[in-house]
Amino acid sequence: MIGPLIAILLGAATAPAAYAGFEPLKAAGKDAPLCTIDASICVHVSDPGVLTVTRDGQDIASWSPDTDSGDLSLAPMPALFRLRDGRLLVGVLATRQSSYSGGGGSATEQMLALVEPGKEAKLVLTVPEGGSLMIRACFDEKDFKHRAGACHDEYRFDGALAVATSAADGLPTLRFSMTASHYPRGVSRGEDSLALPPLRKADLIWQDDPHCTYKRIFRFDAASDRYVPDAALPECSDYTVP
Length: 242
What we know:
The chain is mainly beta.
C-alpha cells in the first residue's frame, strides 16, 4: 500500500491541473466509484445525493451536502487529500442548471468536506468550479442589426483549487483562482443589452472580467471550523448563478 506521504507526492505529480497537490481519483469502469491509485480509498455519490467514502472496502463516512433544490446534481470531485493522521479532504461537484426561452446555462460549485474517523463529515469549503450561460438578445430583425448578428450574451467562468502548502500536522493551505469572461464586449446581466449602443464588429470578442478574475489563499480556521480566504471574495453571481 502507498503510504500517505508518498500518495500526496504522487498526487502532486499526477492530479488534474485544477487540483494540483491533491491525490487523483480514477474510475475502474463505467459507473464505478472514483478511487485512489492504490485503490484503498474510494468515493461515490448515491441517491439521493449522498457522498460515500470507503477505505479498504469499508464505509467510513457518508455526507449529504445541502441539496434542497431539485435541479442540483452531484458528482465526486476527482481528487482528494490524505492527512497524515488519517483524516481526508474529499469533495463533490454540485451542478445547477437553468433553461429558459432562447437560453440557459449551468454552474458548478466545489464543496470540500473533512472526513475524520469516528466523526460526522463536515463541509469546510465551497468555491466556484466552472460554468457557462447564454441569454437571448435578439427578438426581431431590428435587434439583429443592433447586435451585429450576435444574438446571445454569453458568460463563462473557470475555478481551480490546488494545494498551496502542506503542513506536517493540520490541514493544508489551499490556493484558489478564478477566471471569468463575457461575450460580446461590454455586456452585463445587470443591464438591458438592447439599451446599449449598437455593437460593432470590433465588439464581437470575449472580454475578460477583471472583477471576477482573481486569486485567493484559503487557510483552515479552527474557530469557525472552515477554510477562510485571505481577502473577501468578489460578488460574481453574473457568472456563478445560471
